[in-house]
Amino acid sequence: MNILITAAQGDTFDRHFPAPILEQLRALGTVVCNPFPRPFTAQELAEALKDTDIVVTHWGTPQIDACMLDGAPRLRLLAHAAGTVAHIASEAFYERNIPVLSANSVMARFVAESVLGYMIAATHRVAQLNASIRAGSWDKRLGEQTSLFGNSIGLIGLGTVGRELLSLLAPFGCTVRVYDPYLPTGALERWPFAAQCGFEEAMRQPIVSVHASQTPETYHMIDANALELLPEGGILLNTARGSLVDTQALIAALQTRRIYAVLDVYEEEGAGNQPEALLQCRENTLLLPHIAAAPATWQLTQAVVDDIGRFLRGEPLTLAVSLRQYRLMTQE
């Protein structure tokens, strides 16, 4: 049993694949690791897959398409030790009945925890009060501070993160309105304080959190018209993908100081890539460098390793990604 780990060597590998987890994998088969301090190229991955039975993928792994699978006749399982697999797996896996696993549901718990923290920080204007006191002020009235308790929240897209967030919101007595055109009937029964609604109603809530997948359909779904629906003092949080929000429209709305935004993702990410006009909106933004899932490291890998064990023992899988789920996942 040959197990290939595609993660690049370095700090990320060490945090996600610590020695105890590698030992667990070695107990299941012969482990081969990507030897490079960078992701495999498509050609290198195709070569490495030739004698592989199980591939454990990670960020940066090239997509494994039908052609690559043709050269990997032994491959029995893809196990992704991170979130979306839309850019790594392909429909060829489903056509050949090769199971696809993802730690997306595990990562979602950590992202939801971050979102809850961001909501509390935003409603209490933590960043602005911190900046104010460092500047020598003692203005307790800075911004309009509110609370999550008894508040109304709109979710744009539900997905795995949204479901985890609903569970975390339960003690706060919130009313939650969910816009998700793909939501199955009865999906909200576990959360009696949540109800499905249209897009405009969700956007009219005092707090709106974006959790839709990145697809051509959702590009700039939060545009100028959508932002106008937010009430005075409304809070927009985006921890999904930057392309879901029209950045220029958001900047224009922020410059009026009518709304507040918490952004963990951007249309252009990386140091120095955020528009200066956005950075200047200090009084009504909380900006973070795409770290909502950062606390999740070895926990993702451990969940995948546990499911690999279940697969080899012929037991039901807990992280399997159905074809429907695959098609709805964020496309990088």
From TrEMBL:
Keyword Oxidoreductase assigned to the entry: answer is: yes
Q: What is the lineage of its organism?
A: Bacteria, Bacillati, Bacillota, Clostridia, Candidatus Ornithocaccomicrobium
**Any one GO MF annotation of this record:** NAD binding
Per UniProt, residues of the D-isomer specific 2-hydroxyacid dehydrogenase NAD-binding domain are 116-292
Q: Which family does it belong to?
A: Belongs to the D-isomer specific 2-hydroxyacid dehydrogenase family.
Q: Could you tell me which PANTHER family the record lists for this protein?
A: 2-HYDROXYACID DEHYDROGENASE YGL185C-RELATED, 2-HYDROXYACID DEHYDROGENASE-RELATED
Output the SUPFAM superfamilies linked to this UniProt entry.
Formate/glycerate dehydrogenase catalytic domain-like, NAD(P)-binding Rossmann-fold domains
**Native species of this protein?**
Candidatus Ornithocaccomicrobium faecavium
PROSITE patterns, alphabetized: D_2_HYDROXYACID_DH_3
Q: Give the protein name, as stated in the record.
A: Hydroxyacid dehydrogenase
Q: Where is the D-isomer specific 2-hydroxyacid dehydrogenase catalytic domain?
A: 30-320
Q: Quote a single Gene Ontology cellular component term.
A: cytosol
Asked if the keyword Transport belongs to this entry, the reply reads no
